[in-house]
Amino acid sequence: MTDDRHRNDRQHEREEDEERHGNAPGGGGISIGSLSGGAVAQGDGAQAEDRSERVGERPAAAAATPPPQAPGRGGMAVGSMSGGALAQGRDARAVDASRQLLTVTPELLAAVREMRMELSHRVRTPGDGLDEVDGELAELQAEAGLTGQARRTRLTRLRTLLTSGATAVGGLASLAAVVEAISRLVA
Fold first, then answer.
1. CB-side neighbour CA atoms (13 Å) of 106
2. Residue 67 CB partners (closer than 8 Å, separation 6+)
3. Position 137 confidence tier, pLDDT thresholds 50, 70, 90
4. How far apart are CA 35 and CA 80, in angstroms?
5. Measuring CA to CA, how many Å separate 171 from each of 22, 137, 151?
6. Residues 6 or more apart from 107 whose CB is under 8 A from it?
7. Contact criterion met (CB below 8 Å) for 142 and 150
8. For the whole model, what pTM was predicted?
9. Cα separation of 95 and 59, whole Å?
C-alpha cells in the first residue's frame, strides 16, 4: 500500500512540475493557418532560425482569416506567417536573420546619382551628416551595380537617415525623388 501511495505521489509531483514548466500533456504548441516561409520550433530545447534570402516583394498576405485556435495552455496561434521565426517551448529561442533583396529601379538609381552630384558641390561642416549620407548612397550604388538589387534594411536605413532631420540634406533638390523611390520599393 505504501509503494502505491509513493508511486502516486511521485506521479502527482511529475504532473505538477510539467504544468509549472508548460509541458503538460496536450498543452502548448504552435498552430499556424498559413506558412509561406520562416522557421518554427516548439519543444523542450526549441530553437527556430530563419536565415533565408528572399528576392523581390514580400509574398501577398493570405486572405484575412482568424488565427487557428491556440493548441492548449501556453500555445500560440498564428493566422498567416510569411517569414520570420517563432519558438514556443521551454528553452525557446527565435532568430530572424533573413534578408529581403529588392530590385532597384532605374528611377532610384538616377535620383541617387543626382543626389551624390549635389552632395559633391556642398561644403562639409562637422556634424552635418553629409559624409554619412554620401557613404550610404555610394554603398547602395555599389550593391545595386553588382546585383541590380538592394537589401530592404539598407533602403529603410537610408530613408530614415534622409528624413530624420539629423543631416543637412533638407535643401537638396533630389531629396524628394530619392525618398519617394525608396518608399515605393519598401512599401
1. 0
2. 31, 33, 77, 78, 79
3. very high
4. 6
5. 57, 17, 27
6. 177, 181
7. no
8. 0.57
9. 20
